[in-house]
Amino acid sequence: MTNNVTAPMTALSSAIDRLSEQSITWSSQRTIDEGLDIVRDYCWAGSCALYDSRSGGIRLVGHRPALDSDRTVTVLKNWFPWGLAPMNPKRFMFIEDAGLLTATPDGAVTLADLGIESCLHLPLLERDSPIGYLQVYWPETRLVWDDNMGRILRTLGRFLLESASRRA
């Protein structure tokens, strides 16, 4: 019998396995988009984003749903994420009431302005150094985050970053 905790984890792992198999025939962008859709679906989130930090700044690699513009978004490491860079979490940073956090380095836009109430920041590490970040956003307040899912999502995030590097 499967309990309430392992069933979603098993389904998430299966979805990632299918993504990995299909990614061989897909473009890098489609792999990233499909992977981020998995994140949104299994987290019951409104949106999510993947960032690459391997080249100096923090560069947006993918966002679901897709952003209205094709512009490249790069921010400085001393601001990212949301002006909370000094916190530098190694596993995750979950913020239940995130509306007042800044969405842009100039502080002109808050997460609440974008319809975001709660957010999650998952560092993607390689040998204890960040190579990227996966961020998940909810339009309603969430009270908890179960990092058992975070372990699997961090693995997926690293896979998606690898797909992004094939695109370059």
Which regions are unreliable across 5 or more consecutive residues at pLDDT < 50? none
Lateral arrangement of strands in the main beta sheet: 3-2-1-6-5-4
Topology, number of strands = 6
CATH architecture: 2-Layer Sandwich
Largest sheet: 6 strands, antiparallel
Strand fraction: 15-25%
- Assembly type: single chain
Into which percent range does the helicity of residues fall?
Answer: 25-40%
Tell me the distance between the termini. Answer: 45 Å
Describe the protein:
- The protein is an alpha+beta fold.
- It has a single domain (6-167), classed as Beta-Lactamase (2-Layer Sandwich).
- It contains 3 helices and 6 strands.
- The protein has a 6-stranded antiparallel beta sheet.
- Helix 1 packs antiparallel against helix 2, helix 1 runs parallel beside helix 3 (147-167) and helix 2 (28-43) packs antiparallel against helix 3 (147-167).
- The chain is globular and about 40 Å long.
Observed structural traits:
single chain, 168 residues, alpha+beta, Beta-Lactamase, six-stranded antiparallel β-sheet, 3 helices, globular
